Amino acid sequence: MHRYAMSAKRNLAGDSDDGSDRLRRHRGVLENLMDPDYGLLDQLLEIGALSRREVHEVKSERTFERRNTQIIEYVSKNKCLEKLILTLRNTNQTHITNYLTSDGGKLH
Fold this sequence. Notes:
- This protein has 108 residues and is mainly α.
- Helix content is 67%, strand content 0%.
- The protein contains eight helices and no strands.
């Protein structure tokens, strides 16, 4: 992979290559603001971020906060924050994308 592409990937993911630090820091915001019900899960499945079983388990949760918690846990386990960010952008949740990519609005 080209050095610039690897650097951009690290910037998008946050402090760690897999984005787990960033997910941990912003978990509360993601749990409360993500909309898991209108395309997010289907797209995460389509791009391979989540398996069918994982999507089924997320959909079985009663509240959207619990669905979001489950999504965050799977994204962290599967090390696919970049795919979540892409999917949030594709499902018109750019306010969350902007929050994640700017690490909560912090300047570095």
